[in-house]
Write a structure and sequence with these properties.
The protein is an alpha/beta fold. It has 2 domains: 1-6 and 9-228, P-loop containing nucleotide triphosphate hydrolases (Rossmann fold, 3-Layer(aba) Sandwich), CATH 3.40.50; 230-345, Magnesium chelatase subunit I, C-Terminal domain (Helicase, Ruva Protein, domain 3, Orthogonal Bundle). The chain is built from 16 helices and 11 strands. The protein has helices spanning 11-29, 36-47, 62-72, 88-92, 129-133, 135-141, 176-179, 193-204, 217-228, 234-245, 256-261, 268-284, 292-303, 311-315, 320-330, 337-343, and strands at 52-55, 77-81, 93-99, 105-111, 118-122, 143-146, 149-152, 158-163, 184-187, 262-264, 308-309. The strands form 4 sheets. A 5-stranded parallel β-sheet has the order 2-5-8-1-9. Strands 3-4 form a two-stranded antiparallel sheet. The chain has a two-stranded antiparallel sheet with strand order 6-7. A hairpin with a 5-residue loop joins strand 3 (93-99) and strand 4. Helix 1 crosses helix 2 (36-47), helix 12 crosses helix 13 (292-303) and helix 13 runs antiparallel to helix 15 (320-330). The longest helix is centred in the N-terminal third of the chain and has 19 residues, at 11-29. It starts with 10 loop residues before the first helix and ends with a helix.
């Protein structure tokens, strides 16, 4: 069966998606040297309607990436600098007493910075847990409640939160419930010599890269709809389900590492995220159906923040990356891509 006959979406539609996605990646690459995986995973979060948690030491370009994304997509951008004294009302908004021309007084809601399309929650783990939790409803329901009134947020609504490593002074660990609200945990590493030289050239010279606005909210909605139309074979759905269940130490499919070191496994939200992320990968690779490598390539950013380990894991020098790699090795094997394509007929 030809690719155009696959019912998920048409071959021209896949080509259009690839072209638009490549344009986004190219524009963001003007301000983000290297870090291809970081850009791809951030865009993937946006396209599946999730939120991104970027982690790395200060100065690696997390804020630059978020600002650039808002400019390239022509979205309303809001930046919130999280600090220990930040209160929930500072980000949600509050009701104030106003007086009209006739002298009558009334309460009027003043929206906070969460009322935007692209929200940069900068250094989120420097705020208190109370303020961190204020983001929960907004991220999960795309609405906030102030008093007895529920306010709906704009569409699209995309949170990019940045956090410093927990070992740094003045940081608070994010609650497990809030970590699960993020589609992916994206790690930004220190650049190698050649990329660092490029960063210095771009940022210390007389000219700055000019970003083009290449897409609006309507175009973005079309790409997001196309993601959900990609075919996923039943055998791959079961593969994802087994992988997620294998992260729980009391599950029959759990590996030895999971049983020994994991306290809490990934939630059903992880399975939803992984399947959507695999669909994005399929489209980027020019396919209207998900292949096994689309799933395995996105497992790490989708799962590493959702697996909570015992203290013994840190003592033994074992992190969630090793546990996920072990899961990928031991989860029941799946057919090759050619066989998967046949299953989408």
């Amino acid at each position: 069966m030809a690719q155009a006959d696959i019912p998920a979406t048409s071959a021209p539609g896949v080509t259009d998606f690839q072209r638009h996605y490549a344009s986004l990646e190219h524009e963001l690459g003007k301000v983000m040297v290297g870090q291809t995986d970081v850009i791809r995973q951030t865009l993937c979060c946006l396209l599946i309607g999730g939120h991104a948690l970027l982690e790395g030491v200060p100065g690696l370009g997390k804020t630059v990436l978020a600002r650039a994304l808002g400019q390239v997509l022509d979205l309303k951008f809001s930046r919130i600098q999280f600090t220990p004294d930040l209160m929930p009302a500072d980000i949600l908004g509050t009701s104030i007493l106003v007086t009209d021309a006739l002298g009558a007084r009334s309460l009027q809601f003043q929206p906070g910075p969460l009322f935007g399309n692209l929200i940069l929650a900068d250094e989120i783990n420097r705020a208190s847990p109370k303020t961190q939790s204020a983001l929960l409803e907004a991220m999960a329901e795309q609405s906030i409640s102030v008093g007895r009134t529920t306010h709906h947020l704009a569409d699209p609504f995309f949170v990019i939160a940045t956090q410093n490593p927990l070992e740094m002074e003045g940081t608070y660990p994010l609650p497990e419930a809030q970590l699960d609200r993020f589609a992916m945990n994206i790690i930004i590493s220190t650049p190698p010599v050649d990329e660092l030289v490029q960063i210095m050239d771009r940022t210390t010279g007389t000219t700055k890269p000019a970003l083009l606005t290449i897409m609006n909210a309507g175009h973005l909605a079309e790409m997001k709809a196309m993601v959900r139309a990609v075919s996923v074979a039943e055998i791959l759905k079961r593969y994802i389900a087994r992988m997620i269940l294998s992260t729980h130490p009391d599950n029959i499919h759990a590996t030895a590492l999971v049983k020994k070191y994991v306290r809490y496994g990934a939630s059903p939200r992880a399975a939803q995220t992984l399947m959507l992320a695999a669909r994005v990968q399929a489209l980027i690779n020019g396919r209207a159906y998900v292949a096994p490598q689309d799933i395995t390539s996105m497992a790490l950013p989708c799962l590493r923040h959702r697996i909570i380990t015992h203290f013994d894991a840190r003592v033994d020098g074992l992190d969630t990356v090793a546990i996920i790699n072990d899961l990928l090795t031991h989860t029941e094997t799946i057919p090759e891509a050619g066989a998967i394509k046949a299953l989408t007929r």
